[in-house]
Structure formats: C-alpha cells, structure tokens
Automatic annotation (TrEMBL):
Pfam families, alphabetized: RAI1
Enzyme class label: hydrolase
Enzyme Commission number: 3.6.1.-
Residue ranges of the TM segments: none
Cofactor(s) essential for the protein: a divalent metal cation
Residues covered by the RAI1-like domain: 46-398
The protein's name in its UniProt record: Decapping nuclease
UniProt entry keywords in alphabetical sequence: Hydrolase, Metal-binding, Nuclease, Nucleotide-binding, Nucleus, RNA-binding
Keyword field contains Hydrolase: yes
Record family assignment: Belongs to the DXO/Dom3Z family.
One GO location term (cellular component): cytosol
Polar residues bias locations: 7-29
Lineage summary: Eukaryota, Fungi, Dikarya, Ascomycota, Saccharomycotina
C-alpha cells in the first residue's frame, strides 16, 4: 500500500466547478476541499512514535512527567460478583473540568518546550495539533451532522491547528441531564477500572477503595506522538486513559533496535462505555461508535480499547477488549452494520491524507502568524479555508522559546 500517493483527478481548490453526487455542477467556495471526492489512495503511513508525555494534575497544573498515568485494574469476577457496578455513584460530587476555559494548544506546546530544552533539538513535523482534531477530520466523510471551526497558523515553518472553542460553545447542543449523567458514567468507569500505580506498588486500601473518591476529569495524562500520513508529518498529543501493564522507562529502553525497543504506545489502552447490546439497533449504534474508537486510537498508535458495557440505568455488567487494528474488519463484516452508514477505514484514511495535504499546501506557509479559519458547516460537502485578522493562539512561552538562537 505504501509508496507514491495517487492523486485523485478531482481538483481541490480555487472555485473549480465540482460535480456533486447528484451529477449537477456546483460552484465550490474558494479554497475548499470537497469531502466526498478528495482522496489520496494508499497513502504511506508512518508508525506513530512517542516523543514525550505530560500530565495535568487535579488542579489542572501541568507536569512534564507521567504522574497522571493510570494502570488498568478491573477483574471480571468483581464486576460479576457485584451484580453490576453502579456508575452513577458519586455523581453529586463530580469534579468536572470547566470546558469553557480555552487552553488552546498550551499543554502540548509547553511540553515541546520542555522536550526541546532537554534534547536541544526542534521537534520536526509539518502539522502540530491535538489528536481529537485529527480524529474529527478522519471521521468527517462519515460524520456530516456537526459543524466545526478550526484555527490554523504557520509559525517557525510548522502549521499549528486548534479547535475554535467559542464556535464550539456557541453551536454545541446544550447537554440534557441524561447526557450529562451518561458522560459521567464514562469517567466513573475510568475511575473504577484503574489504579494510580502498578498493582504491586499500590496498597490494598488504594486498590479496594478506588471507587470511593469523588470522580474528576481534571487530571489527564497525554502522550505526544510523531506520526505521518502521505507527505504530511504530524506531531499530535492525545489523552491516554491508562496502560495495560506498565510503561517502559525511556532510560532503560533501547530505541535504536526495533527488536529490543519496548514501545510505550504498545502498552496504552483507551477506555469507553457503551450500553449492553440487546437488539440489532443497539449493535448498529455500537458499531458506529467503534469506528470512532478505532479512529481515535489508531491515530495515536493505541493498540487496545476496553469497552465497559452498562445497563440503561448505568450499571456496569461486563467489559470487553478490542484490538484497534481489528475494529474496521469487525465493523465491515458484521451483519448488523447499518447499510446506510458503512464506515470504511481505508477510505477515511485516504480522505485524511488528502485533507492534511490540502491544509499543508493551501494555507500559505510564507504568511507566518496569520490565523486561518478552517470551517465545516453541518451537512455541507466542503471544508473551507479563509484568512482572518485574529491574533495567533500560540502560547507566548513557546513562541519565545522557538525564537531563541540555540534552536535555529
Ligand atoms: O483545540 C483545542 N483546544 C482542543 C483541546 C481540541 C481537542 C482536545 N483538546 C484538549 C483536551 O481537553 C485534552 O486536554 O486536548 C487534550 C487531549 O485531547 P484529545 O485526546 O486530543 O481529545 P479527544 O481525542 O477528543 O478526547 C479524548 C479524551 C476524552 O475521552 P473519550 O473517551 O470521550 O474519547 O479527552 C477527554 C475525554 O475524556 N476530553 C475532555 N475532557 C474534558 N473536557 C475534553 C474536554 N473538553 N475534550 C476531550
Ligand atoms: Ca476514554
């Protein structure tokens, strides 16, 4: 599959008339990417590689270490014996992060400053962003109902992309009580399925009382990964829920020999909850969700997802492991897959490759510090790019660091 990307003949840009899916000619907006046809088939993939990691503590302070990394610990017997673990427990004392605070790319950029101070090397890559943003782009061909806006800026010959939080806040559906509770179940599951250090380093008390403390989504552990698709190299950071067993210490690790290298990414696990599957409809909904789990985990090189299945009332009944690389096949083969929304991982990646290439080549790289807006309007077929007069959103500490002579 790897090798020279094949460019689809459909041009992407500059008001070129596009043939819509109905065969009618439509005028594309300026600087736009047609989502239904933009593809680079069989793009070369780079194996994701962790370059650093960082943690937010329970007060949302940043630490350039693995202090908020969790370890998976959940026994099926414990789940079964309890007759179902109540995931609503402690909802009234949930410590929820204020998601109206705009953090831009701050955690990621400051972790790069820390890394680069230590290595004395600039972190290479064309695009630097959060994993969640790339997940949105990867899923876009199959996920057309929600609009979004991104801000993008070239700086120091790299393209930085963030989500526009004011747009997100202004357009997101106000969560009703039930969806607030359901999202709490996800965090509660993370809490009861993990411990703060390896099992043999935790006291029995810490292990057994892990479900008693208030749930918080303030602390997070993030991995920063170099990866790439087609001609575009990326540095992406994403939250990692836990490790399966342990995280290899880079100091003890051999990374110049692939046979001896204990890759930290191989140990990571994504946690999710889903309702227990009782009907074809449940199965079809679950398979759509699995595809998003695949997209999210695949981008960061997370090999495993563990899904906690809960009842309609939020009682955890069981959990199951899914290997990330097997998910597209599972969804494709399943007789439950909804014929109207057949996901295709290969096609989604072909779109992402075209999309990244479009971003890299459309936003003028000579115009450093000019903020561009990337827009997707709900149900439209285009991603558009336009120039703004907004101020750059890059953290001043990062800008200052990159401006210092030793980095050049
Ligand atoms: O442009 C920005 N300012 C963005 C910042 C866009 C996307 C994410 N972020 C932030 C997140 O708050 C987080 O600190 O980046 C960091 C890493 O995020 P990510 O891994 O790129 O985000 P994503 O892949 O969308 O989500 C992963 C997890 C979620 O878990 P589930 O199981 O639902 O995928 O990150 C958490 C959430 O647990 N998360 C959040 N938690 C609280 N508030 C938020 C949020 N706004 N967004 C993601
Ligand atoms: Ca999760």
């Amino acid at each position: 599959m790897a090798g020279r990307p094949h460019f689809q003949s459909t041009p992407w840009t500059n008001g070129t008339p596009q043939v819509s899916s109905h065969g009618q000619r439509q005028q594309a907006p300026a600087l736009s990417l047609p989502i239904s046809s933009a593809r680079i088939r069989g793009p070369a993939m780079r194996q994701p590689r962790e370059v650093t990691s960082f943690s937010y503590d329970n007060n949302r302070s940043l630490h350039f270490d693995d202090s908020s990394l969790s370890y998976f610990y959940l026994l099926q017997d414990d789940v079964t014996a309890s007759g179902g673990i109540d995931l609503s427990a402690g909802y009234n004392v949930f410590k929820k992060r204020d998601d109206t605070i705009d953090e831009h790319l701050d955690g990621l950029l400051l972790s790069l400053v820390d890394l680069e101070k230590n290595t004395r090397k600039k972190t290479t890559g064309d695009i630097i962003t959060w994993r969640g943003i790339v997940t949105k782009l990867l899923c876009l061909p199959y996920s057309r109902n929600d609009g979004f806006e991104l801000n993008a800026v070239w700086f120091d010959r790299q393209l930085f992309i963030e989500e526009d939080l004011p747009y997100k806040l202004a357009t997101q559906r106000l969560p009703d009580q039930r969806s607030e509770l359901m999202s709490y179940w996800g965090y509660k599951f993370e809490q009861i399925a993990t411990i703060p250090r390896q099992w043999n380093e935790c006291s029995r008390q810490e292990v057994e009382s892990r479900g008693q403390k208030p749930v918080s989504n303030v602390a997070q552990y993030c991995s920063v990964v170099k990866t790439g698709l087609g001609d575009v190299r990326m540095v992406i950071a994403g939250e990692v829920d836990c490790v399966w067993d342990y995280k290899p210490d880079p100091k003890d690790n051999v990374d110049n020999d692939p046979k001896l290298f204990d890759n930290p990414l191989d140990h990571y696990v994504e946690l999710k909850t889903n309702r227990v599957i009782q009907s074809d409809r449940d199965a079809s909904t679950f398979e759509n969700k699995l595809f998003k789990v695949w997209a999210q985990s695949f981008l960061l090189g997370v090999p495993k997802a563990i899904i906690g299945f809960r009842t309609e009332q939020g009682y955890l009944q069981t959990f199951e492991e899914f290997e990330t690389q097997k998910i597209p096949g599972i969804v494709k083969k399943s007789k439950y897959s909804n014929p109207y929304t057949t996901w295709d991982g290969v096609d989604a990646l072909a779109f992402l490759a075209a999309c990244l290439q479009w971003l890299k080549t459309t936003i003028p790289r000579a115009e450093e510090n000019v903020v561009w807006k990337i827009r997707y309007l709900p149900r439209s077929d285009y991603l558009t790019a336009s120039k703004t007069d907004q101020q750059s959103f890059l953290h001043p500490g990062f800008v200052k660091w990159r401006g210092e002579p030793p980095m050049k």
